[in-house]
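Step 1: inspect the first sequence and its C-alpha cells.
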Amino acid sequence: MAWNELARDAEKENKEVRDRWISIYIGVVAVILAICAMGGGNATKDSTRFNIDVTNGWNFFQAKNLRRQGLALSVDELELSLKTNPAMAADARALVEAKIKERKADIAKLTNDPVGKEGLDQLWDKNKALEKSRDQSLARDPYFDFGQAFLQIAIVIASVALISNGNLLLIFSVICAALGSVCTLNGFTMWFYLPFIG
C-alpha cells in the first residue's frame, strides 16, 4: 500500500512540475505574441503614414509640374511674339526678353532645386524613397499576421495539453510557436520572402 501511495505522490509531483513548465512556456509564447502584435500594428501604421506621405508628395510634384508646364507655355508665347513682331520697340523687346529669361530661370528652379530640395528632380527621388518605405512596411505586415495566428494557436493548444496531459498536443503547440516566432522575427528583419505571403 505504501508503494502505491509513493507512486501516486511521485506521479502527482511530476504532473505539477510538467504543468509548471507548460505554464511558463505559455507565458513566454504570450510575450512573443505581444511583441508580434506590436510589430504588426507598427507595420500597419507605418505603411499608412508612408502612403499618405507618398500621396501628398506626388500631389506636390504634380502641382509643380503643372506650374512648370504653364511657364514653358508662357515662354513659348513670348518667344513667338518676338519672332512675329520684328519691328517691336527696343524697350518692349528688352522687357519681353527679360520676362523670358526670368521664366526660364523659374523653370530651371522648378526642375532642379538643390538648395530648397523641392525641385521636381528632388521630389521624384524623395517620393520614390517613400514608396519603397511604404512597400517594405506592407511586405512586413503579413508576416506579423501569420506570426500572431501561429502563436495564438500555440497558446490554445498548450492550454489544452495542460488540461488533457497530451504530449502530442504539446509538440504541435511547440511547432506552431516556432513557426510564429520565425514569422515574427522575419516581420522585423525581412531576412526572407515567401512568395505566397503578401
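Step 2: inspect the second sequence and its C-alpha cells, then contrast the two.
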Amino acid sequence: MSRNLKIAGSLAVAAIAAKVWAARRQPAGPSAYLPIDKPKPVAEGIWIVDGAPIHAMGLTMPVRMTVIRLGNGSLLLHSPIRHSPALAQAITELGPISHMVAPTTAHWQFMAGWQQAFPQAVTWAVPGLRDRAQVKKSGLRLDRDLGETAPPEWSGTIRQGLVRGLGLAEAWLLHEPSRTLVLTDLVENLEPARLPPVTALAARLVRGNVGRPALHVRAALLAGGEQARSDIRTMVELAPDKVVFAHGAWFATDGAARLRDAFAWV
C-alpha cells in the first residue's frame, strides 16, 4: 500500500510539473489593472492606484494602493506602491500627503521612496513590523504603530481595526463616507486569465484565493484561534458596500455579501 501511495504521489508531482512546464509556453495575460500609476476614483474622497506587477516567491502578481482624503483635506496613502515622480505629482494634485500606512508585515518595501520624497508625512506600521530585522536593516523610519481604533488624525473619516493570526497582523480601514473597507492581503481575488501562466497555474492549483484569503493567510488565521475569529467577525460585521485589497479584482459591489463569503469558513 505504501508503495502505491508513493507511486501515486510521484505521478501527482509529475502531473503538476508537466502543467507548469506547459504553462510556461503559453502567452502571458495582462497582469496589471490598467492604467497603472494613475489615481482612479472609488467614491468621493477615495481612490485606488494600480501598480506594475510585483514578483514574490517566483510568482507575478498585480498590486494596488489606496489613497484616502481626510477631513482636513490631506491624504493618507495605504500600502504605497513603487514611488515615481509622475505618480507623486498625480497624487499631490488631490491634496498634500500627510500619512503613509504599512498595514501588514509584507507591504512596506516601497514606503522608503515615498518617505524620501515626503519626509514630513507621518509613517504608520502594523504592530510588530518595526521589530523585523529586514525593516531595521532598511533604515525605514516608522513613526507610530497602528492600533485597534483610529487615531485622532483620521477618526472622523476612517474606522480602524486589526486582524491577528499566528505570525500575521493586518490593519483594516473603513472609509466611512463611502462605506469602503480597505484591506491588503486578507482577501485576494486573482483572475487566472490575467496572470502569467505559472502564476495562473499556482492560483488555480494551490492558492485557493478567488475572492478569499490565500491558503497561507487562512492557515495563520486558523492558528490564531479565538482572537483571530473575533477580529474577523468584527470586520465582517462592518458590512461594507465596497472592499478594496492589494491583489486582484476588488469588490466594487455587494461588498458585505462577498466579504461574508470570503470568511464563511470562520
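Step 3: confirm your contrast with the notes below.
Residues 162-266 form one domain. The longest strand covers residues 46-56.
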